[in-house]
Amino acid sequence: MKELIGTGVALVTPFTSEGAVDVEGLKNVVEFQIENGIDYLVVLGTTGESVTLSEEEKQLVIATVVATNNGRLPLVLGIGGNNTAKVSEEMQRRDLSAFTAILSVSPAYNKPTQEGIYQHFAALARVAPKPIILYNVPGRTASNMEPETVARLAVDFDTIVAIKEAKGDLVQAMQMIHSTPNGFLVISGDDMIALPMTLAGGAGVISVIGEGFPRDFSDMIRLGLERRVDEAYTLHYKLAPCIDYIFAEGNPAGIKAVLDQLDVCDDFVRLPLVGISKKLRDSIDAFITAY
Fold this sequence. Notes:
It contains 13 helices and eight strands. The chain has one domain: TIM Barrel (Alpha-Beta Barrel), CATH 3.20.20. It has an eight-stranded parallel sheet with strand order 7-6-5-4-3-2-1-8. The protein is of the alpha/beta class and 291 residues long. It starts with 5 loop residues before the first strand and ends with a helix. β2, α2 (55-69) and β3 (75-78) form a beta-alpha-beta unit. Its main location: cytoplasm. Keywords: Amino-acid biosynthesis, Cytoplasm, Diaminopimelate biosynthesis, Lyase, Lysine biosynthesis, Schiff base. It holds the Pfam family DHDPS. It is an enzyme of class 4 (lyase).
């Protein structure tokens, strides 16, 4: 899965002031990523506020991204949830012809055991029409995918090809890199440790901050993959303050404020999310002005 090595970005879903999907804003976001060197795009992930989109809106987002991208970059589609049967049905129902892989988050709220997590993804792997990227994000799901579970899935199912590892624990990420088969990709889901994970043998990142600063962030990961460490860390430390800013009051409110300041799209979010505070916005604006 060489298409998934490097920098992917988790696309936001822009909204209008009336709360509708902003199609023109979404086109701008996609073009901004392509023009600035991003390697692949992730549609309908957490950053895309997929849990608050209707089925019709999801179809609109997919169609808009596919048409705008026009085959230029690989695409990954988020299909996940805590109802295994429903996720399985959606994977089989959707037209995935334009997509390279599926990103599927570990079940939230149910708090399954490691065996439950294994059986959930085993059921999906048996029916998935495209390769699966596991997604471990304990801060949102309330359960952690242990390295042993990830390795077991990677060995048992050829259709499970990667994991987006977003615990923010470099030691756990290194255990996954070490224990999974050659060719299995461990992708950072945490922007702050994306570079050290890459240098430890990871495959890059699915990023949030990269959506606002695609050129420098994707260059940083390329330099990391090339083992040009000093140059890579220069870019890391240049971007690090804004990584803290965009997550200070929640994702995607922070990255949408960045994109708004850059005139890429507006920063409206849907309840229960709210926009960022004026104090944080001033910090982000000052960072971008200095940058």
